[in-house]
Amino acid sequence: MPISPSSALHLVFDPLFLQHRSRGYHPERPERLTAARRGVSAVEAEGVKLVPLPPRDASEAEILRAHDAGYLDELRQLAGKYAALDADTYLAPASVDAAIRGAGGAVALVDALLAAGPGDARQGVALLRPPGHHATRDQGMGFCLLNNIAIAAASAVAAGVGRVAIVDWDVHHGNGTQDIFWSDGRVLFISLHEAPLYPGTGAARDVGEGAGRGRIVNVPLPAAADDTVYRLAFEEVVLPALRRFAPELVLISAGFDAHARDPLASMQLTGVGYGWMGRALRAIADESAGGRIGAVLEGGYDLTALEESTAASLRGVLGWPVPEPPSADARPVSARHRAAIEAARQASEAGAGAAATGPGGEVVGGGAVGGGAGARVDEP
Ligand SMILES: [Zn+2]
To answer: Which pLDDT tens digit goes with each residue over 158-212?
Structure first.
């Protein structure tokens, strides 16, 4: 299906997100958000109309779809203080307010995508801090306090969306999002990440449990994966899993720390790879989700890379023409990268087979390859 380029983009941004700042140097710093915002401005200068979404806090009910009440209480008690959840994860006086506003921003983005009628923008980006994908149900970690994208996906599910896909291309495994949707079944979570690397989770064999079996797809990749390796992983694992699932909404955990310039990891992605991945996910959104796709900022610690990659991925998400990375036929892919992708493909297909049959062996979903929304029988 040809993609028709979009001309408008929802944008979540709030100066409150800049007030989450550690006392000493920390790589997760406000300047990151300013850099990502410059990336959005670059795309605006190329002709997209930005549709700013009014900032709002996430409600307690929204947060509790993804987090335990005890953890939320713990965070609230730290509001207004300098504190640390662990050696990596700081809180400044405004941090809890920023986290609640950030989660609300992600929900606002999903609400806007779901409400979009004919002619309305169906793509968007939430530029927020602190990031979220490491936060589990009961624990903030890895610079993350509240799991923004999980709260947003759970909000979509609560609004009646039966199938939400989250693709996490941050270089670190999205352990928190996996934890929250491990046995859910209504959210497909796909993470590509460097392994070994923090937080050490995300093995290919981890595919979810119960109703969530087959709904977790992990693609751990050895260091030095470049645009070609990521393209191959998309073609072999990510895109087939998405087409089997036929999401009604596509969300991206958009970290940019797999960029070659990033100081915290050792991957070799460039803006070309991010643009291509954005466009590939836009194609999925057009196939089964009415074009609805939103990106939520996660990590990314080189400011130049953040600006470039934000712009590049949004061009792809908007369906604009983007450069194509060399395919694995045109450029050598190392044996260890090929082996990692093959292991992830096998685990994903085995998990999908398990997901297609319930405990009694009856087919309960998962079979409508290329089917549109509503083409599948939803799980009970
Ligand atoms: Zn990361």
So the answer is: 999 999 999 999 999 999 999 999 999 999 999 999 999 999 999 999 999 999 9
Structure tokens at 38: 């410059």
- Is pTM beyond 0.90? Reply is yes
d(CA 239, CA 235): 6
Does 359 have pLDDT greater than 50? no
Q: How many whole angstroms from 212 Cα to the centroid of ligand 1?
A: 24
How far is residue 127 from each of residues 15, 106, 200, measured CA to CA in Å?
A: 10, 9, 26
Residues that are catalytic: 134
Show me where the domains of the chain are located.
8-356
The C-alpha atoms of residue 184 and residue 208 are separated, in whole angstroms, by 8
Ligand 1 centroid to Cα of residue 264, in Å, is: 8
| 114 in Cβ contact with 160 (< 8 Å) | no
Burial (CB < 10 A; 0-12, 13-18, 19+), residue 29, is middle
Q: What would the two tokens of residue 240 be? A: 């087939």
Domain 8-356's class? alpha beta
Distance 257 CA to ligand 1 centre (A): 6
